[in-house]
Structure formats: C-alpha cells, structure tokens
Amino acid sequence: MKLLGSLASPYVRKVRIVMAEKKLDYSLVLDNVWAPETTVPQFNPLGKVPCLIMEDGAAMFDSRVIVEYLDTLTPVGKLIPAQSRERAAVKCWEALADGLLDAAVLVRLEKTLRPAEQQSQIWIDRQMDKVHAGLKTMAADLAETPYCAGNQFTLADVATGCALGWLAFRFPEITWRDDYPNLARLFDKVSERPSFKDTVPH
C-alpha cells in the first residue's frame, strides 16, 4: 500500500499512527497538494490527503474511512471496538478531534492565504470558538478515565493526540496544556508511544 500525504498534516499523521499500531507495511509518498505538480487529484477528486493507494491501484480517501478500513486488516492492535455503543463512542471522539482540527485548519488558511486586509475576524473568531469548545468538551470527558474512551488505548486517543499535537505545532499560543491538565496528561502519555514519536509533525 502507498499513502499519499505530507509530514505536517494531522490527518495523515492519524493514518500513519494507525498503520504503525497495526504493524502494517506501506510506503509514504510525500505530496504537496498546493503545488502545481501534485498527483493527489488523480486519486482523490477533492485534492486532499491522506489518500491510500491499495495493491490493486484502487484509491481510498478521508482519514476516517481509511483508518476504519485499516483496523479490519489485522486483529493486532485493535483500535475500534466491535460493540455498537463502545464503537460509536470512539468514533464520536474521532469526529470531535477531527472537527476541532477542521476549524483550526480553516483559521490557518485564512491567516496564511489571504492578505491581512481581506481576512475576516468574524470568521476566525467563529472557528476558534469551535476549537476552544472542542478542547473544553474533550477535557471534561477525560475527567474519569485514563484514556479517551475508557481504560484502553483506542482510535479516540490517536485522533485526540494528533489534534493536540497539531495545535502545539501550528497554534502554540493556545494554552491548552495549562487550561486542561487532563489533555496534557493524555497527550504526554500517548506521545511516549513509538507510533507518535515517529510521526511528530514538522
């Protein structure tokens, strides 16, 4: 399998971590979707990464779709529970972490792609409100459990760790470590895993 992506994308990182936790072999093909020579649209009409190219040449895209597929390939390091309620809880955590990222990415694009005089502060504030609401909710839900969705490491922790890692990388001014000790403890714990150490964004 080949994974098209970038080293800075938190969505690509999520897939890479799942690949490592599942002990799956693949090659990472670096591609900048903003570059004129990008090949991503050949495989994903939306022009987004990650994009997984399988052995038969078929393509799969959207990180949530990809990681759910990868979790079925081997029983090693099972990350998504089989039971409906527990499964939904993990997927809901993933949706929250990804949604927080979606909002933060929109802010970054607004600030980096538009001239300052064309930027909408109302738009930026609206997206940042989502980021802070997401952090507050995740911290509250972690109050009673060592991991996001209970007592064991799951995809919820992968997604949350990727979201927090990207915020630390791109938005160091957001003081989530000081504001939410629960999130800091979780992040420090998952960051000790080889899969996280090997995929730090840069």
TrEMBL record:
<dbReference type="Pfam" id="PF13409">
    <property type="entry name" value="GST_N_2"/>
</dbReference>
<dbReference type="InterPro" id="IPR036249">
    <property type="entry name" value="Thioredoxin-like_sf"/>
</dbReference>
<protein>
    <submittedName>
        <fullName>Glutathione S-transferase</fullName>
    </submittedName>
</protein>
<dbReference type="InterPro" id="IPR010987">
    <property type="entry name" value="Glutathione-S-Trfase_C-like"/>
</dbReference>
<dbReference type="InterPro" id="IPR050983">
    <property type="entry name" value="GST_Omega/HSP26"/>
</dbReference>
<feature type="domain" description="GST N-terminal">
    <location>
        <begin position="1"/>
        <end position="78"/>
    </location>
</feature>
<dbReference type="InterPro" id="IPR036282">
    <property type="entry name" value="Glutathione-S-Trfase_C_sf"/>
</dbReference>
<dbReference type="Pfam" id="PF13410">
    <property type="entry name" value="GST_C_2"/>
</dbReference>
<dbReference type="InterPro" id="IPR040079">
    <property type="entry name" value="Glutathione_S-Trfase"/>
</dbReference>
<feature type="domain" description="GST C-terminal">
    <location>
        <begin position="83"/>
        <end position="202"/>
    </location>
</feature>
<dbReference type="InterPro" id="IPR004045">
    <property type="entry name" value="Glutathione_S-Trfase_N"/>
</dbReference>
